[in-house]
Amino acid sequence: MNWSVLKTEATYQKAVKRTLAIFHAKEGTPESNELAMLLVLIKDYEDKHIHIPEVDPLEVIKLF
Predict the structure, then answer these.
(1) Which DSSP symbol is given to 36?
(2) Which domain holds residue 58?
């Protein structure tokens, strides 16, 4: 498949699924090149759309 910038949750999920399917691709194969591209695209999407709140480690420890 020709991948491009991931703009929707659906294409993101499709990319993640494909990444898991080819995760152990041997270096130098077309799948390893596709995997490298997918990892960049997924990171880009996550950086733009998934926000993890910062927490104070001391506050987390107090919860336990």
Answers:
(1) H
(2) 9-63
